[in-house]
C-alpha cells in the first residue's frame, strides 16, 4: 500500500518537484509533508494502553468466508441510504480446544449470531449470546456453554447492518460530480490494516488467511467489481446479485469491492482493465499501457506470472475519495485519482513518473504482500520494502528516461536518514507492535524507504544475478528469518547473520569516518549517527557495514560490491591503499546505508576536486551524497558549519539535478529556521545557483533529460521565491495570459502558478481558483490546489484557509493544501496558527477529528522560530487540552519539537547567519570595487576621447 502517510510523502513529492516546498522540517520528515491527509506517525498518535491485548488467540482458524452485501446508495433508499445489509458464513477449524469464539467486529449491528456444525441443518446451530466488541480492540468474545474440540469444524453465521461512512475506511461511500452536474455516489473499500471488521465480522489479522466468496446486490444502474471475476449476475427485479469467484487464500485486508457507475478500459480478453468515472475514460490510457508493461517485467523477474497466482484478472480503479495513496487488493488495485489518471496536457512529467511508479509498487505487492504476507505488522517491511524497491527498479525497466535508479538515492535513502537519526525512530522489525497507533507507526518511512534501502544494499552485496535468483527461490517468508535463510545461500559471507540482525532489529545507522593518515593509509571507524545529543537515543549502537570506496588515483565509481565489512568489534580498521591518494570517497553510488565523514584535510581535497572540470568525474549520485552528508554532519555538530559551507561553495559550479535536490533539502531546514529573516540567504542562493539558472532557463529543449526538466523546476521555483527579478517578471508574463487558450508549459506550470500567487492579489487568486473549480484532470487539480497555498498576502491566506475548511476541497486533500499554505512562505506560519486557533471547532470538523487536527497543528508549530510563538502554542494547548482528549499527547509533542528547534537555533543558527552576513558584506565590497573600476575605466575612455 502507498499509505496515507506515504501518500503524504508522495504529495510532498509533488510539492517538492512542482511547488518545491522542500522545507518540511526534520521532526516532520517521516511524513515529508503527506503523505499529506495521512496516517500520522506513532509520535503523533493518541496514547494507547500498552497492557491491552489487541491480538486474537490462535484457538480458531478461518478457512473460508461467504459474504453477501447489499449497499444502499440511491436517494430512493431513503432512511437506509449510506448503510448496507450483510450476511456472512465463516468456515472455521478449531486448532485448540476452547470454550470461546473470539474475532473482530466494529460498528456492526447484528440481527443473528450463531455457530453451526452444519449450516444446512438448523438443528445443529446454536445462538451466540449478545455481546459487544471491546471499544479499544474491536475484539468480541462469545463465551460458549461447552467446549469446541480440537480439529473440529464449524460455520459461524452472522446477519447484520453496517454504515457506509465518509471517513474512507471499511466499506465506505465516496462521491463525484458527473457531466450533468449531478452528484454520483459509490461504495468502495479500504481494509488495511484493520478495517475489514467494519464490513463483516472477521479474523482481521494478516496471518489468518482464508478464501473469500463475495456476492453483492446492486441496483441495475450500477456495476460492481471485486478481487476475482464475476461468475453470475442474477436479476432480481430492479437489482442484480453479482457473485464472484472464490479468491486464493489471502488476508482479510486484501479483500475489496466497488459499487459504482464507473466505466472500464480493458484488453481484448478482459484480463487487464482500468476502472474510473466515465468522464475520465480518456485519462486511463497511460496507466492501461504502462501497467501491462510493468506487470510483464515483474512476471519475468520473479519467473512466476501474475495470472498463475490464483486470480486471472487485474483491475486498477481510480477512487475520488481515498485515504491511502493506493492499495494492493489482490486483483482489484485501488488508487487516488491523481495517481492513476494521466493527460499529456495537464500532467507534469514528474507526476507521470509517480503514476508509473505507484502502479509498479502496487503490482509488486501481488507477490510481496498478497501471495507472501508478513505474519504480523511488526514485519510490514517484508511487504512495503519490496514494493517500494520495485516501485523504482521495475519502473526503471519500462521508463528508463526517468533514471529512477539515481532518484532512489535522494528520494528514498536521504529522506529516511533524517528520521532514523532521531529518538522517535523504530527498527525495521519491531516486536513492539500491538496497538492501532503501533500499526499506523509501522507504515512510515522506516518501513518503506529504509526497507527498500536495505533490500537494495543486499542486492549490491550479492550482485544482481544472485539477488534475482534469491527472490525466485523464496515465496514462503512470513517472518524475516525465512527470507534471511534464503539470502544466506547466495551471500556466503561470514558476517551475514550479524549483518541482517544489526540492520533490521536495531534502530539507526552509522556515520563512517575515513581518516587518510598518509597517502597510502586509511583509518576507518564508525559510530551511530544522531542529529541531537542527549535525546534519549542509544549512541553506543554499532553495525555491520559493507564498505566501498575509491580514490583520486582510481576513480572507479562502478564497482559497488563491498571490499570488506566492518563490524561492531572493529574499533579502527587500517587499510593500505594500492596507490598514493590525495582524496578518498566512500559508499560508492550510495549502495550502503550510512553517512560518510572525512578528516578535515580530505574534506578540503574533495572541495578542490569538485571545482575541477566535470567535478573530477565524481558522479552526480555521489555529489548528492557529499552535499547531503555535509548538511547533516554540520547540523548534528559532527563537523563545523564553517567547514560544511566552505565545501558547499562548489555548488556555484553545479548544474545537475541530484546534487541540487540534496542541496535544497539541506537549505530548506536552515531557511525555515531563519523565519522571516531571509534577505541575506536570498542573495546567497541567487549567487550560488546562477550558473544552473542560466544553463537551464525557462524553455525545454530537445536535449533535456528528465532530470534536467526536474532541475529546471526546482531552480526556477527557488529563484522566484528568493527574489530573482528576471524570474518573477517572466513568470508574470506566463500567468498574465489566458490560461485556457495559452496554457503554461506543463513542467513549469506549478512554478508559474505558485509565483503568481505569491506575487499577486485577489484577481490572480480568483483566476486560479476558478480554474481549480472547473478543472477535470485530477493531476491538474492537485497541482492548482498546492499552488494556491503559495499566497503571501494575509487577506489571501485567510481566504484560502476558509476554502480549505469548505467542501470545495476533499478531506483527503485538506492536509496537503494546508501544508502548502504554511510551507511555501515563512511569513504565513503564525498567521495560519492564529486562524486555526480562531476557528478551532470548524477546523476539527474539516480535518476529520481532533487527532488529525492535532497533527496539522504540529506541522505548523514545527516551523515556529520565535519564543513568543512557543508561548502562543503553550497557551493554546492549555486552553484546549480537555477538548483534544487523547490527542492532547500530540500537542505535547508539538511543544517539545518547538523547544528543540529553538534550542538548536540558539546554539547553531548564528554561525549560518554570520556566514551569510559576511558573504553579503564581501559581495557588497566586490560590487563597490567593481563600480569604482567601471568609473575609472569610463574616465580613462573619456580622457582618451578628449585627447583625440
From TrEMBL:
GO terms for cellular component: cytoplasm; extracellular space; plasma membrane; side of membrane. Its cofactor is Zn(2+). This is Aminopeptidase. Binds 1 zinc ion per subunit. The keyword Hydrolase applies. It is a lipid-anchor; GPI-anchor. Coiled coil: none annotated. Residues 286-483 form the Peptidase M1 membrane alanine aminopeptidase domain. Keywords: Aminopeptidase, Cell membrane, Disulfide bond, Glycoprotein, GPI-anchor, Hydrolase, Lipoprotein, Membrane, Metal-binding, Metalloprotease, Protease, Signal, Transmembrane, Transmembrane helix, Zinc. Pfam families: ERAP1_C, Peptidase_M1, Peptidase_M1_N. Belongs to the peptidase M1 family. One of its GO terms (molecular function) is metalloaminopeptidase activity. Its EC number is 3.4.11.-. InterPro entries: Aminopeptidase_N-like_N, Aminopeptidase_N-like_N_sf, ERAP1-like_C_dom, M1_APN-typ, Peptidase_M1, Peptidase_M1_aminopeptidases, Peptidase_M1_dom, Peptidase_M4/M1_CTD_sf. Zn(2+) binds at residues 361, 365, 384. The chain crosses the membrane at residues 7-28, 927-946. Residues 62-254 form the Aminopeptidase N-like N-terminal domain. It catalyses: Release of an N-terminal amino acid, Xaa-|-Yaa- from a peptide, amide or arylamide. Xaa is preferably Ala, but may be most amino acids including Pro (slow action). When a terminal hydrophobic residue is followed by a prolyl residue, the two may be released as an intact Xaa-Pro dipeptide. The active site is at 362 (proton acceptor). GO terms for biological process: peptide catabolic process; proteolysis. It is found in: Cell membrane.
Amino acid at each position: 500500500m502507498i499509505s496515507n502517510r506515504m501518500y503524504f510523502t508522495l504529495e510532498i513529492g509533488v510539492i517538492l518537484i512542482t511547488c518545491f516546498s522542500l522545507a518540511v522540517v526534520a521532526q516532520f520528515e517521516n511524513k515529508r509533508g503527506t503523505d499529506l491527509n495521512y496516517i500520522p506517525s506513532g509520535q503523533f498518535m493518541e496514547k494507547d494502553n500498552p497492557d491491552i491485548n489487541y491480538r486474537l488467540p490462535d484457538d480458531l482458524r478461518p478457512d473460508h468466508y461467504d459474504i453477501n452485501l447489499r449497499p444502499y446508495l440511491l436517494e430512493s433508499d431513503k432512511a437506509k441510504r449510506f448503510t448496507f445489509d450483510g450476511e456472512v458464513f465463516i468456515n472455521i477449524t478449531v486448532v485448540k480446544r476452547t470454550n470461546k469464539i473470539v474475532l473482530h467486529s466494529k460498528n456492526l449491528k447484528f440481527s443473528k449470531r450463531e455457530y453451526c456444525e452444519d449450516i444446512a441443518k438448523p438443528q445443529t446451530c446454536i445462538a451466540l449470546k449478545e455481546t459487544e466488541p471491546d471499544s479499544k480492540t474491536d475484539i468480541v468474545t462469545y463465551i460458549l456453554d461447552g467446549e469446541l474440540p480440537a480439529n473440529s469444524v464449524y460455520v459461524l453465521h452472522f446477519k447484520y447492518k453496517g454504515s457506509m461512512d465518509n471517513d474512507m475506511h471499511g466499506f465506505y461511500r465516496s462521491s463525484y460530480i458527473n457531466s450533468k452536474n449531478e452528484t454520483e455516489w459509490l461504495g468502495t473499500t479500504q481494509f488495511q490494516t484493520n478495517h475489514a471488521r467494519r464490513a463483516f465480522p472477521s479474523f482481521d489479522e494478516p496471518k489468518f488467511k482464508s478464501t473469500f466468496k463475495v456476492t453483492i446486490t446492486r441496483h441495475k444502474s450500477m456495476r460492481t467489481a471485486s478481487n476475482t471475476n464475476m461468475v453470475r449476475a442474477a436479476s432480481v427485479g430492479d437489482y442484480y446479485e453479482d457473485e464472484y469467484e472464490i479468491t486464493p487464500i489471502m488476508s482479510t485486508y486484501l479483500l475489496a469491492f466497488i459499487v459504482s457507475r464507473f466505466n472500464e478500459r480493458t484488453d481484448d480478453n478482459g484480463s487487464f482493465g482500468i476502472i474510473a468515472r466515465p468522464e475520465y475514460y480518456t485519462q486511463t490510457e497511460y496507466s492501461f499501457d504502462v501497467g501491462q508493461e510493468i506487470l510483464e517485467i515483474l512476471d519475468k523477474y520473479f519467473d512466476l506470472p501474475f495470472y498463475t497466482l490464483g486470480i486471472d484478472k487485474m483491475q486498477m480503479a481510480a477512487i475520488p475519495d481515498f485515504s491511502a495513496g493506493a492499495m494492493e487488493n489482490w486483483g482489484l488495485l485501488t488508487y487516488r485519482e491523481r495517481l492513476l489518471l494521466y493527460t499529456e496536457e495537464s500532467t507534469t512529467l514528474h507526476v507521470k513518473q509517480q503514476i508509473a511508479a505507484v502502479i509498479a509498487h502496487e503490482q509488486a505487492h501481488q507477490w510481496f504482500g498478497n501471495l507472501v504476507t508478513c505474519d504480523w505488522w511488526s514485519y510490514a517491511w517484508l511487504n512495503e520494502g519490496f514494493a517500494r524497491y520495485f516501485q523504482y527498479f521495475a519502473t526503471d525497466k519500462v521508463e528508463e528516461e526517468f533514471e529512477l535508479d539515481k532518484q532512489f538515492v535522494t528520494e528514498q535513502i536521504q529522506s529516511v536518514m533524517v528520521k532514523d537519526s532521531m529518538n522517535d525512530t523504530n527498527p525495521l522489525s519491531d516486536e513492539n507492535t500491538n496497538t492501532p497507533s503501533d500499526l499506523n507507526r509501522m507504515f512510515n518511512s522506516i518501513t518503506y524507504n529504509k526497507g527498500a534501502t536495505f533490500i537494495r544494499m543486499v542486492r549490491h552485496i550479492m550482485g544482481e544475478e544472485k539477488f534475482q535468483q534469491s527472490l525466485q527461490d523464496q515465496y514462503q517468508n512470513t517472518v524475516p528469518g525465512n527470507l534471511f535463510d534464503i539470502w544466506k545461500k547466495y551471500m556466503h559471507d561470514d558476517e551475514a547473520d550479524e549483518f541482517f540482525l544489526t540492520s533490521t532489529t536495531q534502530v539507526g545507522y552509522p556515520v563512517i569516518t575515513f581518516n587518510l593518515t598518509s597517502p597510502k593509509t586509511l583509518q576507518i571507524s564508525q559510530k551511530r549517527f544522531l542529529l541531537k545529543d542527549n535525546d534519549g537515543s542509544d549512541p553506543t549502537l554499532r553495525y555491520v557495514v559493507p564498505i566501498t570506496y575509491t580514490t583520486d588515483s582510481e576513480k572507479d565509481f562502478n564497482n559497488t560490491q563491498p571490499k570488506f565489512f566492518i563490524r561492531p568489534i572493529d574499533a579502527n580498521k587500517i587499510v593500505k591503499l594500492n596507490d598514493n591518494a590525495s582524496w578518498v570517497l566512500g559508499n560508492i553510488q550510495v549502495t550502503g546505508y550510512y553517512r560518510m565523514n572525512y578528516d578535515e584535510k580530505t574534506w578540503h581535497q574533495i572541495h578542490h576536486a569538485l571545482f575541477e572540470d566535470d567535478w573530477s568525474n565524481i558522479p552526480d549520485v555521489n555529489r548528492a551524497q557529499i552535499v547531503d552528508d555535509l548538511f547533516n554532519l554540520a547540523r548534528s555538530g559532527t563537523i563545523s558549519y564553517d567547514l560544511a559551507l566552505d565545501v558547499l561553495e562548489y555548488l556555484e559550479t553545479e548544474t545537475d539535478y541530484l546534487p541540487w535536490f540534496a542541496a535544497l533539502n539541506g537549505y530548506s531546514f536552515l531557511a525555515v529556521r531563519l523565519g522571516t529573516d531571509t534577505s541575506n540567504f536570498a542573495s546567497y542562493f541567487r549567487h550560488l545557483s546562477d550558473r544552473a539558472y542560466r544553463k537551464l532557463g525557462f524553455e525545454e529543449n530537445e536535449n533535456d533529460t528528465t532530470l534536467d526538466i526536474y532541475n529546471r523546476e526546482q531552480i526556477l521555483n527557488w529563484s522566484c521565491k528568493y527574489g530573482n527579478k528576471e524570474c518573477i517578471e517572466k513568470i508574470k508574463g506566463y500567468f498574465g495570459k489566458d490560461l485556457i487558450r495559452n496554457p503554461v508549459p506543463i513542467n513549469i506550470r506549478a512554478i508559474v502558478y505558485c509565483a503568481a500567487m505569491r506575487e499577486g492579489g485577489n484577481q490572480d487568486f480568483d483566476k486560479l481558483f476558478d480554474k481549480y473549480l472547473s478543472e477535470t484532470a485530477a493531476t491538474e487539480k492537485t497541482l492548482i490546489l498546492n499552488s494556491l497555498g503559495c499566497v503571501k498576502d494575509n487577506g489571501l491566506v485567510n481566504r484560502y484557509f476558509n476554502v480549505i475548511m469548505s467542501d470545495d476541497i476533499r478531506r483527503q486533500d485538506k492536509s496537503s493544501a494546508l501544508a502548502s499554505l504554511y510551507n511555501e512562505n515563512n511569513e504565513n506560519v503564525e498567521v495560519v496558527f492564529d486562524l486555526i486557533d480562531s476557528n478551532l471547532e470548524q477546523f476539527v470538523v474539516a480535518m476529520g477529528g481532533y487527532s488529525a487536527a492535532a497533527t496539522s497543528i504540529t506541522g505548523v508549530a514545527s516551523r515556529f522560530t520565535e519564543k513568543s510563538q512557543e508561548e502562543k502554542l503553550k497557551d493554546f494547548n492549555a486552553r484546549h487540552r480537555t477538548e483534544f482528549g487523547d490527542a492532547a499527547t500530540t500537542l505535547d509533542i508539538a511543544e517539545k519539537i518547538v523547544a528543540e528547534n529553538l534550542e538548536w537555533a540558539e546554539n547553531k543558527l548564528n554561525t549560518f547567519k554570520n556566514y551569510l552576513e559576511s558573504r553579503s558584506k564581501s559581495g557588497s565590497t566586490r560590487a563597490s570595487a567593481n563600480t569604482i573600476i567601471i568609473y575609472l575605466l569610463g574616465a580613462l575612455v573619456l580622457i582618451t576621447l578628449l585627447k583625440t
